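Ticket reopened. Same input as before:
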Amino acid sequence: MKPRELAVILYLTLAIVFIFLPVAILVQYSFQDGLVPVPPFRGFSLRWYERMLANRKLMEALGNSIIVGGVSSFVALTLGFLAAYGLARGRPRYAGRLQFCLMAPLTVPYIIIGLGLLSAFSTVGIGRSLVTVGLGHVVINLPLCFAIAYSQLGEHQANIERAAHDLGASDLQALLLVTVPMLWPTLLAAFFIAFTLSWDEFVIAFLLSKFDVTLPVVMWNMLNSGLNPQLNAVGTLVFATSTGLVVLIAALLLPRSRNG
Amino acid sequence: MRAGGVGGLTRLTVLPALLWTVLLFAVPLAVMLGISFTEHGSSAFTFDNYTGFVTRSDGAFLGALLNSIEVTVIVTVLSVPLAYPLAYVLAYQTPPRWQRVLLIMLILPFWTSYVIRSYSWLVVLSKNGVIDRILLSVGLLDAPMEFGNSRAATVLGFVHFFVMLLTLTIYANLVQIKESYRKAAADLGASPVQAFLHVTLPLSLPGVAVGAFTTFVLAIGDYITPQILGGGRELLLPQAIMLQIERRADFPMAAALSMILMVVVSAAYLLFARHLKMERV
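Engineering reply: fixed in the latest deploy. New output:
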């Protein structure tokens, strides 16, 4: 028993070291007191954070990413939830096939989705912009939001909706006053998952944007012009923000999973 | 259930999502398929992009496809056995109080920027970087060495990402397997190893299949990791696609290469399909 426990702990420790290694080095070199973020580490400095905050392109991209992520996730969640509701409650014919169609984008690499959209947009003469990036991000997040919402629309929830109907609620009232409030932790979690995916998505954003770009694209451009500790500072900031979001999602989902 | 209330109009709520998927996913793919059969610079119909893929004298495209398949298979084969024990320990041998904390710990770096994460591996693997110094200090290396810019670095960057993803999907599957099954196996005289091999493992395979397929699709379509870590000595298919667009502005060729990538992914889907229950993802 003892050696086995030891092996388990050793494996876990090694795994955590492996998983955190790049992040630890990233954070360390964001404080690099030198021009390049490569060894040796020269000591503590906050100047790359100052540079980052003064970098207008970077800050604009940060704002763009928040807008594109927020709007596209909201659209994806709304469409995904409505579709899940229609499939779960309306029980249309061909429900299985409809579901397959809605989930299909999950099985296609982002680069193909991006190039497809680029082909279609340039064929009909739609120019590249943050709007087209957002349209693409809805395509990749819609199946996820749909799947998450669909998995939570079971018999238990249907019974509660039926009770609402019996008490005289219309379909719309039951949907807005019963179903949505009942599912809000799930819906909020789906929103955040979609947001983080959009926030971090590179290839579609790269192919479909032109002058205004999102954060991953600007970081990519910076990276191509040479290693720069500003990138470490941005990376650290992004990591800290996402950590906050993940803790928030966990806190939202925690009470639910404790009950069932 | 009431006959009139639910149904009818409720079904229509599927329409916006379906319309979106058709207009912005299916139609664009069809347009791209059409473009892949046109000549670069004109819109004349041609098979050249596809025949060129096979017959190109330097074999660059065919090579990129083979490299992509090799790297993706290596990554999937390495990631699954690394992630499974993690998910297993987490699901069965960690006190429930600690499970969530550990799970969040194990996937936190998942949420750092993808571009930045690949780039940090470059720093970790650089000359005199952490890996270099560890190997030097234990005497495995005589002189500092650059580990980045290689296929091994690409594989490492991928494995790092997918171990996190797979731990999550396999864990989610393992915790759904009822404890009573394993107890029943033990009551019937199975050793822990037998119980694992005949009960837990087969029941967890759907989760493994979903995770492995996701790994395959995401890895084979990824441009960032090989571009940052691979060092440019060999091309993977997404890099070849982006080269057509950025350097040559040869959209038809990029479209044809994308279609070939699509065929590979579809073949993988069919291969995994028996174990995939997409409706339950």
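Residues 56-259 of chain A form a domain with the MetI-like fold fold (CATH 1.10.3720.10). The radius of gyration of chain A is 23 Å. Please confirm and we'll close it.
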